[in-house]
Amino acid sequence: MLTFETVNELTLRVTCRGNDVLFAKAGAFIAGESTGGKNYRFEKVLLGPQQNLLQAALGSLARRATGENLPLMKVSFNGDSQTYYANYGQHITAYKLARGEVLSVESENILAFTQDCDYSVRFLGVGVLSQKGLATSTLIGRGDHAYVAVLSDGNPIVLSNVNTRTTLSVDPDAVICWIGDEGYNNDPQVKTDLNWKNLIGQASGESYAFEWGGNQPVTVVIQPSERKGGIRLAVD
Predict the structure, then answer these.
(1) Right CATH for 2-222 from 3.40.50.300, 3.20.20.140, 3.40.50.2300, 3.60.160.10
(2) Which helix (H) or strand (E) holds 115?
(3) What are the structural domain ranges in the chain?
(4) Burial 30-69 (b: 16+ CB within 10 A, else e)
(5) pLDDT tens by residue, the chain, 236 residues
(6) 38-to-33, 100, 109 alpha-carbon distances in Å
(7) How far apart are alpha carbons 189 and 210 in whole angstroms?
């Protein structure tokens, strides 16, 4: 059994009791401790974390075709231990997904996840307006220990309309991930505010946004930093 917790916001501590498997960003391991000698080992994931070889191969092709390719390593535990993971001082947030809960995330923001998560890549179809691609990585909770750790540039902010059913509007270049139930369509709509000022270089810089309506109960995690991207229209 694996559990996740963060240390000083910048490090992920994974506690293992017994035998288990972890998938993590390749090279993210920084330290570990175990009783009676080192009882964990690392190996590169050549295709994907799926158990089925065909699914793993197809998943690998999909990730490469959509730009959601994620260099993973598999950490195999054979006994009690604590291991630590980080990525260039980025902030880390750990989540425990309920069964059927879906987390949609940019591959670059994934640090680690347990094998109780069902990992795949799916087409989003709304990313053409930002640095975010046309696809997103998806992790679905399938067991009682479905943990995910995500990375952010700076301390993240969490917005949720699950209880309030308000409308959430977010800059796509600041989005890390969004979490919702498998029974709902939790993908955002793209709202644009383009006019003649964009053509003469007088845009506000906020011409498009991801939007979730009140009928889409979702939790959105954003970072206080924007990716460099988006449409830049101007007349020279």
Answers:
(1) 3.60.160.10
(2) none
(3) 2-222
(4) eebebeeeebbeeeebebbbbeeeeebebbbebbeebebe
(5) 999 999 999 999 999 999 999 999 999 999 999 988 999 999 998 765 655 544 444 454 444 544 445 789 999 999 999 999 999 999 999 999 999 999 999 888 999 999 999 998 877 654 444 444 555 789 999 999 999 999 999 999 999 999 999 999 998 889 999 999 998 888 888 877 654 444 444 444 556 788 999 999 999 999 998 876 544 434 33
(6) 7, 35, 29
(7) 6
Write down the pTM of the prediction: 0.81
Which residue type occupies 231?
Answer: I
The pair of structure tokens assigned to 217 is 């109960």
Nearest to 120 by CA among 134, 140, 101, 100: 140
Using CA of residue 41, residue 20, residue 68, residue 207, what is the dihedral sign? negative
